[in-house]
Write a structure and sequence with these properties.
By secondary structure, the protein is mainly alpha-helical. 55% of the residues lie in helices and 10% in strands. It has helices at residues 2-39, 60-81, 85-101, 111-133, 137-158, and strands at 165-174, 178-184, 213-218.
Length: 221
């Protein structure tokens, strides 16, 4: 009797062990299947959203003219940075011609904008003539301050959209107490090149080259 019971007990234990092993294997298989299906790349049926290409509201001819004038303006700024009166006069003359060559006719569809834009022509001429005729570089900078404000206003009126333009201000441009404005391609502090204090100031030398702050910016894209 003892042998029979012992054999039956062993058989039961083996049977239970097999069931346990089977359950473990099934569990492992289930986890493996879940991992496979969850980590398998899923097809993406969504069409990627493409950003539309920015199209200027102005013609290429108009933008080319404005861009050329801005390049001449930035060159004039560098002349002031370097306290180079000969270069300042040359760049002022080049800028005068570039501004006069801008094709404003396409703005006639909005008579208000067109008339306002054209009216800036006289302001530019007055500012640039003052820059070229003044013997004193301080007076050249006074006229440059006026020119910068007028150019910024023009770009804002016509909604220039070929690039971002920053309006910079030096708080001590005149007599260490009066502010002066200028336009820049960059609004970064490290890129700032102050045309009022520049590189050869009699008091500060080049120590105040980056003096100033960004007051405003235009970005009509």
């Amino acid at each position: 009797m003892g042998v029979k019971n012992g054999g039956r007990t062993t058989f039961v234990k083996i049977s239970r062990m097999r069931k346990l092993i089977l359950l473990v294997l099934l569990a492992v298989a289930g986890v493996a299947a879940w991992y496979f299906f969850e980590t398998k790349p899923k097809p993406n049926n969504e069409t990627p959203q493409l950003n539309p290409i920015a199209v200027s509201k102005h013609s290429d001819t108009f933008n080319t003219g404005v861009n050329k004038a801005l390049d001449q303006y930035y060159s004039l700024t560098e002349g002031l940075v370097n306290w180079d009166t000969t270069n300042i006069n040359q760049k002022a003359d080049s800028l005068e011609k570039s501004l006069a060559a801008i094709k404003f006719d396409e703005l006639k569809k909005d008579s208000g904008i067109y008339q306002t834009a054209v009216s800036y022509g006289e302001n530019f001429n007055n500012d640039l003539q003052a820059i070229k005729s003044s013997k004193d570089i301080a007076q050249k900078r006074k006229a440059f301050h006026s020119l910068s404000q007028n150019m910024y206003d023009l770009l804002r009126v016509v909604k220039y959209d070929e690039g971002k333009v920053y309006l910079q201000q030096c708080p001590m441009a005149f007599n260490d107490s009066e502010p002066g404005l200028w336009l820049s391609r960059s609004g970064n502090d490290d890129d700032r090149r102050n045309p009022y204090l520049g590189l050869h100031h009699p008091k500060y030398k080049g120590a105040m080259l980056t003096c100033g702050e960004t007051k405003d910016s235009l970005n009509f894209k």
